[in-house]
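Protocol step 4 of 6: structure prediction from sequence.
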Amino acid sequence: MSVTLCAEPGNGSRGVTGEVSVLNGRLHVLGGEVQAADSTVTTCLVWFAGTLVRIAGDVGDVRSAGVLMGEAAAVLALVPAQPKRPVPQPTESLTQCQLAVLCRLEHEVPLRQIADDLYVSVNTVKSHVRAVYRKLGVNSRAEAVERGRALRLV
């Protein structure tokens, strides 16, 4: 991902401090994207740029800090672009029972408790869970809850 700094170069340590804080914000956002992308090279580049930014923030010399900020920006320019993946819509809509089960999955309660709350058997809940996973295209409870939140179902 190509990152462009938007901070205006300033005179004195104030300009460098502003650049450090802007680059820190960009690193924070990029760090979240990197974890989702799970790219070792990208992770290393972001870590290295973050280290340069921290050092630049600690350096008392404005000129040295400016050089470090330039190096950090150059490192971030090497980060490959990560395509934004749209959240796919479920091919089938969830039934009311499946939505009720999905909402309860969010609270990390056992399937037995969900069955008791809905006055159905555990096997029925398991069937609903499998249907939810299939319709949302996920393989785990955590993924189902995450996809449900992304789709504003829970």
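Step 5 (inspection) to follow. Residues 13-37 form the longest helix (25 residues).
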